[in-house]
Each structure stands twice: as structure tokens, then as C-alpha cells.
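Translate structure to sequence.
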């Protein structure tokens, strides 16, 4: 497996995404709406639990 060196900008983007993900799940639970994900090269809608 190849190892890639990330730029500081890429690190900031990844850190931001890691902060947003739990908030997205909480929002989807609160609004009782489906979460759209990519699973096995197919788009799937799931209910957050």
C-alpha cells in the first residue's frame, strides 16, 4: 500500500471533515431523514441509528 504525504491544507480539510461527521449524524437523527452513502460501488440510503 502506498503512503502519501499530505499538505497542511489537506490536513485541515480532513480535520474539518472529522468534526462535521458527528454533527451530520446528529442532525439526520433529529430530522429523521435518510443518510446517503456509497457502499460496494452503489448509492445506498440508510436511517441513522
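Result:
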Amino acid at each position: 500500500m502506498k503512503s502519501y504525504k499530505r499538505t497542511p491544507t489537506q490536513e485541515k480539510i480532513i480535520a474539518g471533515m472529522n468534526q462535521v461527521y458527528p454533527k451530520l449524524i446528529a442532525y439526520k437523527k433529529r430530522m429523521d431523514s435518510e443518510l446517503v452513502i456509497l457502499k460496494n460501488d452503489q448509492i445506498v440510503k440508510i436511517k441513522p441509528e
